[in-house]
Amino acid sequence: MVVGFTYWLSTTEEHAGGGEGSHSEQSEEGGDSAGGEAEQIFAQNCASCHGENLGGGAGPALEAVGGTYSKDEILDIIKNGKGGGMPAGLIEGKEAELVATWLAEKK
């Protein structure tokens, strides 16, 4: 967990000034631009703990998280964290909404 959080801290400044446009270029590679953008946000902010393929690691696997939690519940966890390891606010605003929607589809 510390490694993932440290990684997040080291990349936060790098992405802070990028704005929303920094994700749009890479989102076109998939057919669904919103899903592609969500995947890119996940890769940059979440994969270090949850795995590149959602298989888990320091954090739990998210391959079927939509079968357990609704989009709103996932968004709440992203915003407020979850006891035992998930820190609050790693992604915010529109990016958090996109990732929560994308993860909620994983059933």
From TrEMBL:
It comes from the Bacteria. Keywords: Electron transport, Heme, Iron, Metal-binding, Transport. SUPFAM superfamilies: Cytochrome c (SSF46626). Residues 12-26 have a biased composition (Basic and acidic residues). Heme c binds at residues 46, 49-50, 86. The keyword Oxidoreductase does not apply. Binds 1 heme c group covalently per subunit. One of its GO terms (cellular component) is membrane. Pfam families: Cytochrome_CBB3 (PF13442). Residues 33-107 form the Cytochrome c domain. Residues 1-39 are annotated as: Disordered. GO terms for molecular function: electron transfer activity; heme binding; iron ion binding. The keyword Iron applies. This is Cytochrome c domain-containing protein.
